[in-house]
Amino acid sequence: MNKFLRQLASLTLITLIFSSLSYAGRRPPKWVKNRPVSSEYYIGISVVKKDVENYMQLAKNKALEDLASQISIQISSNSVLTQFEDNTSFKEEFESQVKTSLVQDLEGYELVASWNNKKGNEYWEYYRLSKNQYALMQRLKLNKAKKLAQSYFEEAKEYEAKLNLIQALSYYSKSIAALKKHLDQDLSVMTFEGSVNLGTEIYKRIQDIYSQIQFVPVKKNIKIEISTSVKDPFLVKVNWVSDEGEKPLINLPLAFNFITGDGILNKNVYTDEFGYASSQLSRVTSKQSLQKIEASLDLSSILKPDDVDYELKKIFLTPELAPKCSIILNVERLKAYMTFSEKIFGEDSKRSILKNAIKKELSENYFSFIEDKDSANVILDVKTNVVKGEIKEGRNYKVHIVYLDCFFSLTDVKSGFEIFNDAIYEVKGMKPISYDYAVKEAYDQAVEEIHNTIVPKLNQLDL
What we know:
Layout: H1 2-21, E1 22-23, H2 30-33, E2 41-49, H3 55-68, H4 88-105, E3 110-117, E4 122-130, H5 131-161, H6 165-178, E5 188-191, E6 194-197, H7 198-212, E7 213-217, E8 221-225, E9 234-242, E10 245-248, E11 253-260, E12 263-265, E13 268-270, E14 276-279, E15 281-284, E16 290-297, H8 310-317, E17 324-332, E18 334-344, E19 347-348, H9 353-365, E20 367-369, E21 378-393, E22 398-412, E23 418-432, H10 435-458
Parallel strand pairs: 1-3, 8-17, 18-20, 18-21
Antiparallel strand pairs: 2-4, 3-4, 5-6, 7-9, 9-10, 9-14, 11-13, 11-16, 12-15, 16-17, 18-19, 21-22, 22-23
Helix pairs in contact: 5-6, 6-7, 6-8, 9-10
């Protein structure tokens, strides 16, 4: 009998609990009609239509979003975010991410009740979360994050002391990533050096590393001819400058890039045992007369665009402030002497129309033409031949057609070797009235063909 009474009491208790959670009466419960207010709990209430898929899960999600919206983000006066007061977009993005993660990271909440409104085809849910419990869990999460971040921070300092600077910067960035959800809070921890704020101290140490790395180009200004290789590499000396003097930085990654202009360049290099970084320029391809190459600390192993913490790390590593130096290139076109011969309809021609047009086209893209043959780097020999074609006639028209061939030979003065030989064939010119007008049309078409086919091939030369 006693066993029966115990089972009956248990069943009654379960029924009461269930009825308190899921109320399907016609009258709405008090919490539906009047939203509860509590100093002890965060409260979340939601209502959804029952004709949507997974409406119960949807109701829970909306209730938790409602609950999370009551949790305000208080930025500590000792927060690292105060370092970025001018970076409003970063602070706004951080707050947005925190609000998003609040729902995803919520723990310890409880379902107080639900109401199935059959008449209105609605489903309601009521959740709450103890404010004291939430505060406790946040402190535990913060302490755990600070502990992990501090371990990375101490490792970074060890690498920094050994001048293994990329590893140091990598571990400082890992330390920041460990704290990414707590940047609005006081991140102070105790170290052997006393109390430090991890956020502000990491930022400061990164900037200190940058300020102590010195980039010095061996040659700041270099003269070069377009589309030619540079025999000597670009050299940059990299030192660590401290109160103890200068030390060469060994095995430090550098990135060489064109800031203005363009060319084929060895972009990623490391410093050698003496602190020198060497980059080889194969060819300048840009037409600009003044070009600039920048050598900078290569942070690509740390800052990866596909990294979920990329934007956060970029804020702290501030790549635009990383050490760098510039090398100016004064680019000169090749000095060329041009010989030109032309036959029109089988006779030698003294016209200069096509000669001048070819000179203008190649001057804009490649050569600097001179009249002193002995001062030239190359000799460009151009031969053209124009022949008559047919005459097409119709009822109201009469069109003369000509065909133009143009041959190019380029000789290196120093070696005497022919380094380029090419041609364009049967460029058509067609005009009414006479063959002379058709020749002018063929000239225009030839210059366009030279621009499209000959110039790109010249740009591939490695002299």
